[in-house]
Specification:
alpha+beta, single chain
Length: 150
């Protein structure tokens, strides 16, 4: 990357420079901020995402609860229906109880968003359901929390 890019001190100057950066420099900047490149390359998209990311790093991003709220609003009010519905969010410490084959299973939601079943940790409710049943299940459906909102 050129020294002129590195020497830009204000975020406004960095944003103003984006449309004039040669593509190799734009890609180098992208690679610094994102783990992978997009499949379709449209310069305007790259500039927009980089502009947001630069501002986010300099000024801070949205609080997590605002992101969740906006995602839920988008899902509820969008004319494009994905069929998923609002995401299920369970508070840490919540214990889900399910009986299967005459045995009771207790799954606890952990603070990092994972789940604990019989001392084993699972990344998703579906993985915990698979451990119980031996087959693929939708975890929220198996535990009866599909469509539940806090």
């Amino acid at each position: 990357m050129t020294d002129s890019w590195k020497n830009k001190s204000s975020i406004a100057a960095q944003l103003a420079a984006l449309p004039n950066l040669p593509m190799p420099e734009l890609w180098a900047l992208w690679d610094q901020h994102f783990p992978r490149r997009p499949m379709r390359v449209v310069r305007h998209y790259l500039e927009g995402r980089l502009a947001y990311r630069l501002q986010e790093k300099a000024l801070g991003g949205l609080p997590a609860d605002v992101k969740v709220y906006l995602a839920d609003c988008g899902e509820k009010h969008s004319k494009i229906k994905t069929g998923r519905g609002p995401e299920v969010r369970l508070l840490p410490g919540t214990t889900l109880i399910r009986e299967w084959d005459r045995q009771e299973y207790r799954v606890t939601v952990l603070p990092d968003g994972s789940y604990e079943l019989n001392g084993q940790h699972y990344r998703s409710l579906s993985a915990a359901a698979r451990a119980i049943t031996g087959t693929h299940w939708s975890g929220p459906a198996f535990f009866g929390v599909k469509g539940v909102q806090k």
